[in-house]
Specification:
- This is O-antigen ligase-related domain-containing protein.
- It is found in: Membrane.
- The chain is mostly helical.
- Helix content is 71%, strand content 2%.
- It has 21 helices and 2 strands.
- Strands 1-2 form a two-stranded antiparallel sheet.
- β1 and β2 form a beta hairpin.
- The chain is globular.
- The two termini are 46 Å apart.
- About 1% of the residues have low confidence.
Length: 492
C-alpha cells in the first residue's frame, strides 16, 4: 500500500513537472519574454521547500547578495529577484509551522531582551501604520518588515544550531558578496575607477553605492575576526586565499567612495576592542551624549544657520580627495543636503511626536519644514529618498517611541555581546560573538547617515547577526551549565 502511494506521488510529480516545462516553453514562444525561463527553477525550488526547507534556506541566503532589482509595468512596479519570492515562501511556511505548533519557537528566544525590543519595535510599527497619513505606503512598509523579520530573525533559530552551521553561513554569504565586489571592481576599472562613475559600475547589483558600501563594510569586520579560527591551522594556500579575499574587500570599500563605510569599519574595531576590554557599555552612552551635545550647540540661538551652504563653493566633487576635503570645509553637496533634511526632520517631528507621519511618509511632508537657506540643487529629491539618518527616520515616521526603542536596542546589543563574549570559554564562539557585534556596529554607523535596515541585503546583515547573538546567549549559558556539571566541552 505504501509502495502504491509512492508511485502515485511520483506520477503526480512527473506530470506537474512536464506541465510546468510545457507551459514555460509556450509562454516564452508566445510572448518572446525570457523571464518565463525562471519558472521551472522557481517550481523546483518550491518542491525543495516542501521536501527539505533547511536546504532551501541555505540556497536563499546564497542568493541575497547577487539579487537584483527588476522593474515591471513601465517601471511602476519593482522587486528583487530571486530572493524576494523566496522570502514570501518562507513567510508562508512560517505561518503554517506556527499554526500547527506555536511552541515551534523555543521559549528561550521569547525571553531574550533583544527579541523583546524587536517585537516592541514591530508592534509600534503597527501603531504608526494605523495613524499614518500615507496608509498605502505604510502598509507596504509593514509587509516588507514582516517578511524580513520572519526570514532573517525567526528562521535562523532553526538553522544555526551547531558550529558547522555558523561556518556554513559565513561562507554562504562570503562567496556571493566577494563575487559581487569583483564584478563591480571590474566594471569600475573600465571607468578608471573614477569617483563619479561608481554608480554606473554598480549596475543593478545594489541600489546605489551607499547600499553597496554598507553591505561590504558590514561583512568586512566579520571576515577579519571570525575567519581567523577557521584558517589558523590550515594550509598556507588557504591563508593566501584569505588574504586575497581581504584585499578584495579593502579595494571594494576604498573604491566605493563612501565616507560612512570607512568610519563604520573604524567604529566596528572600536566596538570589538571595547568588548574585549569590558568597556563597551561606555561607548554607546558616550556616542549619544556627544550627539545630544552637538544638537544642543547647534540649536542654541539657531547657531546651525551659520553652517548654511555657500552656493558658489558647494557642489558635487569630481574626485574622492576633494570630496573629503569639502566635507571638512562644509562645502560638500551631499553633506549640506543631509543638513537640509535633518533640520526639516527635527522641525516636522514636533507636529506628530508620538506616532509620526507613518512609515514611508517623510518624502511627502518634509519640504514645508525645511530651511530654505540650506536648499541645494539636489533638494528637488527626484529619487524620493528620505532623511538620511535612521534615528530621524524613526522619529519623523514612527515617533519618539520608535526612535527611543532603536536607541535602546543598540545599547542592549553591545552590552549583551560583551556578556556573551566573556561568558564563553570556547574560543570559536568568542570570535564569532565579537565578529557579529562588529558587523552590527558597522551597520549602525552606516545607518546613522542613511536608512537601509529595511532593504533586503542590509536587513540580512543586521537581523541575522542580531538573532545569532540571541542563539549564542543561549549557547553560552548552556556552556556555563555544562562546566558547572563537570561535562567536557565540545571541540571545534
Amino acid at each position: 500500500m505504501l509502495t502504491g502511494a509512492i508511485h502515485i506521488k511520483e506520477r503526480w510529480f512527473a506530470a506537474a513537472s512536464f506541465s510546468v516545462l510545457f507551459l514555460t516553453i509556450l509562454a516564452v514562444t508566445l510572448t518572446g519574454s525570457y523571464y518565463f525561463l525562471a519558472v521551472p527553477f522557481a517550481y523546483l525550488y518550491l518542491v525543495l521547500v516542501g521536501i527539505n526547507w533547511k536546504t532551501a534556506y541555505w540556497i536563499f541566503l546564497f542568493t541575497i547578495p547577487p539579487s537584483i532589482q527588476l522593474y515591471f509595468a513601465g517601471d511602476t512596479l519593482s522587486m528583487t529577484l530571486p530572493d524576494l519570492p523566496m522570502m514570501w515562501l518562507f513567510l508562508g511556511l512560517f505561518v503554517v509551522m506556527y499554526a500547527r505548533d506555536p511552541k515551534v519557537i523555543p521559549e528561550w528566544w521569547w525571553r531574550n531582551p533583544l527579541v523583546m525590543i524587536v517585537i516592541l519595535q514591530f508592534l509600534w510599527t503597527i501603531v504608526s501604520v494605523i495613524f499614518s497619513k500615507m496608509v498605502f505606503y505604510s502598509v507596504k512598509f509593514l509587509l516588507v518588515k514582516t517578511w524580513l523579520l520572519v526570514a532573517f530573525f525567526v528562521f535562523p533559530i532553526w538553522i544555526f544550531q551547531e558550529k558547522k552551521d555558523f561556518v556554513k553561513g559565513f561562507f554562504v554569504l562570503l562567496v556571493p558578496i566577494t563575487i559581487t565586489i569583483v564584478i563591480i571592481l571590474v566594471h569600475h576599472s573600465m571607468y578608471n575607477f573614477a569617483f563619479h562613475k561608481i554608480q554606473r559600475a554598480i549596475t543593478q547589483l545594489y541600489y546605489n553605492h551607499v547600499d553597496y558600501s554598507t553591505v561590504i563594510s558590514q561583512f568586512f569586520p566579520l571576515l577579519l575576526v571570525s575567519c581567523w579560527p577557521l584558517i589558523r591551522k590550515r594550509h598556507v594556500f588557504i591563508k593566501l586565499a584569505f588574504a586575497v579575499v581581504v584585499a578584495i574587500f579593502v579595494l571594494g570599500i576604498g573604491f566605493a567612495y563612501a565616507r560612512a563605510a570607512v568610519v563604520a569599519v573604524v567604529f566596528a574595531i572600536v566596538i570589538g576592542v571595547a568588548i574585549r576590554m569590558r568597556l563597551v557599555n561606555l561607548v554607546m552612552p558616550a556616542f549619544y551624549a556627544l550627539i545630544i551635545l552637538l544638537l544642543s550647540l547647534a540649536a542654541d540661538n539657531n547657531r546651525y544657520i551659520d553652517y548654511r551652504p555657500n552656493f558658489e563653493h558647494t557642489f558635487m566633487r569630481r574626485n574622492f580627495t576633494d570630496h573629503i576635503i569639502a566635507t571638512f570645509r562644509g562645502t560638500d553637496m551631499s553633506s549640506m543636503e543631509r543638513l537640509y533634511r535633518w533640520i526639516a526632520a527635527v522641525r516636522m517631528s514636533k507636529d506628530r511626536p508620538l506616532t509620526g507621519y507613518g512609515p514611508r511618509s517623510f518624502y511627502f511632508y518634509y519640504k514645508p519644514y525645511a530651511v530654505t537657506s540650506f536648499r541645494t540643487y539636489v533638494s528637488r529629491n527626484t529619487e524620493q529618498s528620505t532623511s538620511h539618518n535612521y534615528f530621524l527616520y524613526m522619529l519623523t515616521e514612527q515617533g519618539w517611541p520608535a526612535m527611543i526603542l532603536y536607541a535602546i536596542l543598540m545599547v542592549v546589543i553591545f552590552a549583551q555581546a560583551q556578556k556573551i563574549y566573556h561568558r564563553f570559554k570556547d574560543k570559536f564562539y568568542r570570535c564569532v560573538t565579537v565578529g557579529l557585534a562588529m558587523t552590527i556596529a558597522a551597520g549602525f554607523i552606516n545607518n546613522f547617515f542613511s536608512e537601509l535596515i529595511e532593504t533586503h541585503k542590509v536587513a540580512a546583515l543586521f537581523y541575522i547577526p542580531l538573532v545569532m547573538l540571541v542563539i549564542l546567549d543561549k549557547k553560552s549559558r548552556d556552556e556555563q551549565k555544562a562546566i558547572a556539571e563537570g561535562k567536557e566541552l565540545a571541540k571545534f
